[in-house]
Amino acid sequence: MKQILRIKFLLVIITLQVFLGLQVSTALAQLRTPRFDDDIMIDLQDHRTPEQTGFFLFVSNHLMYGNVGVPAGLLAGGIITNDKAMRQNALYVAGSTAISAGLTEIIKHLVKRPRPFLQNIHITPVYRPGNYSFPSGHSSSSFATATALSMAYPKWYVILPAYLWAGSTAYSRMYLGVHYPTDVAAGAGLGAASALPLLFLKK
Question: InterPro entries annotated for this entry (predicted)?
Fold first, then answer.
């Protein structure tokens, strides 16, 4: 009975997330790109250095090591030590990241916001990815992973590196010229919120 109630609760929360996300996304889609979005992107590209570019490319390109490695590590640790709570937390983290990825793709294809370098010829990206811009998938998934992990293990030595990684990943998308600040902010918020529906899995 409890399991059925949890599933119903999960479905209600996800439905509300989708509905609210679509409302906000539709409103944003009808607005012009804020001036500060363009200004920040141009300022960032004007201050790029080879060292910083290499670092943020590395962070951005290795996103999956965190998104997959964290729950995989928890699962492996839980199996090796026969720790049921750790295995359960692995499911919680993986599920939260999966929800954020699904919602991000739905919103991307509904809003269809072009990448910054397609909207403004003065913005030069480090590379030119495809797909749509809003919200940032890297920001969404990294913040979902960081938030779920921090809620499962609320210790400073878990929270601090988790959010440093997520914040660096989100920042890298702006630095590389492939996402606007509003894309990143929306992605981070969506990712953090994606850890809430599966809270009942956390041990």
Answer: PAP2/HPO, PAP2/HPO_sf
